[in-house]
Automatic annotation (TrEMBL):
<feature type="transmembrane region" description="Helical">
    <location>
        <begin position="239"/>
        <end position="262"/>
    </location>
</feature>
<dbReference type="Pfam" id="PF07690">
    <property type="entry name" value="MFS_1"/>
</dbReference>
<protein>
    <submittedName>
        <fullName>MFS transporter</fullName>
    </submittedName>
</protein>
<feature type="transmembrane region" description="Helical">
    <location>
        <begin position="131"/>
        <end position="153"/>
    </location>
</feature>
<feature type="transmembrane region" description="Helical">
    <location>
        <begin position="305"/>
        <end position="322"/>
    </location>
</feature>
<dbReference type="InterPro" id="IPR052524">
    <property type="entry name" value="MFS_Cyanate_Porter"/>
</dbReference>
<keyword id="KW-1133">Transmembrane helix</keyword>
<keyword id="KW-0812">Transmembrane</keyword>
<feature type="transmembrane region" description="Helical">
    <location>
        <begin position="199"/>
        <end position="218"/>
    </location>
</feature>
<feature type="transmembrane region" description="Helical">
    <location>
        <begin position="108"/>
        <end position="125"/>
    </location>
</feature>
<feature type="transmembrane region" description="Helical">
    <location>
        <begin position="274"/>
        <end position="293"/>
    </location>
</feature>
<dbReference type="InterPro" id="IPR001958">
    <property type="entry name" value="Tet-R_TetA/multi-R_MdtG-like"/>
</dbReference>
<feature type="transmembrane region" description="Helical">
    <location>
        <begin position="394"/>
        <end position="414"/>
    </location>
</feature>
<feature type="region of interest" description="Disordered">
    <location>
        <begin position="1"/>
        <end position="32"/>
    </location>
</feature>
<dbReference type="InterPro" id="IPR020846">
    <property type="entry name" value="MFS_dom"/>
</dbReference>
<feature type="domain" description="Major facilitator superfamily (MFS) profile">
    <location>
        <begin position="38"/>
        <end position="421"/>
    </location>
</feature>
<feature type="transmembrane region" description="Helical">
    <location>
        <begin position="328"/>
        <end position="349"/>
    </location>
</feature>
Amino acid sequence: MDTELSTTAGISPTAATHPGPAGHHDSHGAGHHARHAVSPALLIGILLVAANLRTPLTGVGALLPTIQHGSGLTEGWSGLLTTLPLLTFAVTSPLVARASHRFGTARLLVAALAALIAGTVVRSLPSLACLFIGTVILSAAIAFGNVVLPALIRRSVPPQRIHSISALYVTVMGLTAAVSSGISLPLAHVLPGSWRTSLAWGVVFTIVALAVWLPRVRNDRHEASAGATRSPIPWKSRVAWQVTFFMGLQSLGFYTAVAWLPSILARHGLSGTAAGWVLFYYQLIALIASSLLPFLTRGRADQRWIALGSSLIVASGFALLAATPSAYLVACTLLGLGGGTTLVLALTFQSQRARSAGDAAALAGMAQSIGYLIAATGPLLLGVLHHGGQGWTLPLSLLVVLSVIMAGAGYGAGRDRLAHH
């Protein structure tokens, strides 16, 4: 049975050096760091990692019709290509907390960034097998960054600043993702190698991030050698499951929109380039929403009404797109406003609802393994429903229902409570 604890003014019990798991004090806790500002070098490192967490993936949706035409991929295989990253996230995420505990955050991030470079290069080689193999490699690398960042923020950032730092890295992640959606198809028209070369343009961010994190490896202290206790996954926590379902349904909506929105718009007469820029617009609105969210949540540890409301805005966007496709700009505005807000909340909850950095890694591993397994059904299921029904009304109606369910999970996850194992 859960014994969730209430926090006060957004500061968790660790602010008072609350004992961590197994009676150990959390030496990386908020109480230690509340006296110190976040260093610019660490902040830059966090933001550079964030710039790599979606850029390699969001351009695929805009390029999908071109990839299908150039490679002969069927809709089923195309659905698998867009679902593969989420399946890889689900399989890889539970391994991250153990690896971080054993090897240290900086070493883990350096290895992940190197793997991301390798995967990006392999994906762009002239082979269909490489397209899928490279996608798996780079997705596994991204999964490590997805889980490590909430734990890194929980360990290094004072509790009252967790929300603003999370929103900042989500803003960078959204900006690079939006740019990738907008420029991938135009780049495919001008670069040698067409869409294969266009898929690899984001490797520039990865190389810069690797250069920034390499020097930090020397002073990295992994928790196993420091005698720290690795936190167990909070399977019995009601709050943890609410965070997990909110994370999963939020990701399902986003990755489904990124994968299929250009195809939905193309069915209603937009060119591939125009559809790519609409996808850019959707992510730009999400970016604005995510950057403004800290002003709405400042000083509030309880975010249940914001989570509920933003989820229902996402539901209304999908409903409008299903009922009136010609109003796609209004629908994308609603999807962006709700989606940008729910994304920041989903990532923030993984830090905010944990007692320590170790607990945050365990909660993030759970939320992202189960959550991305839920999310993985989205692009694939929509592709199957569209192929069977010859239209987008049924798939979009399903997304409306799932967004309403997300509202219920968000209301629970947004409560001022901590998850316990």
